[in-house]
Amino acid sequence: MVDRPRSSARLRSTLDKVLLHDIKNMSFRLRLLLSNLDEHWEDPEFRRTVRDLIASTVERLEGIVGRFVAHEDAVLIKVALDVNGLLREVAERPSRRSGRGVAGRGPGLSLALGALPRIWGDPYYLGDALGSLVENAFEAAAPEGKVLLRSYSAGSPRRPRAVVEVIDNGSGMSPEFLRDRLFRPFETTKPQGVGLGLATASQIVRFHRGTIRILSQPGGGTLVRISLPAIPEPEG
Question: N or C, where is the chain less crowded by C-beta within 10 Å?
Answer without folding.
Answer: C
